[in-house]
NUDIX domain-containing protein
Amino acid sequence: MQARSTGKDVFYMAGGKIDAGETPVAALHREIREELGVGVAAYAHLGDFEAEAYGHAPGTRLHMTCFTADLDGDPHPSGEIAELRYFTVAEYAAMTHVAPGSMLVFRHLQSLGLID
């Protein structure tokens, strides 16, 4: 599932920055509640990824600690999120604007057979 923030045209994975003193797992729970309006029932660490940060100055790097998760309800746009959509890897790759970090993680999930 991809989330599009209000006023943006690019879809990203739900999530965000880790606050000072916050663990990646605590950030996972907070960000999912803020952006998808649901809680995390179970999760597994998927990996740590680095990519070019979309929409920032060239050379700006993005570090992502990613998880797979089971949610405790049906996600819906919440907070700054305007829209949620599901994409196959091919559909996402064909879009005009694609976040390199999201594409990297999607390709990894695809290599594991977890998504199409």
Notes: Helices lie at 24-36, 89-93, 100-111.
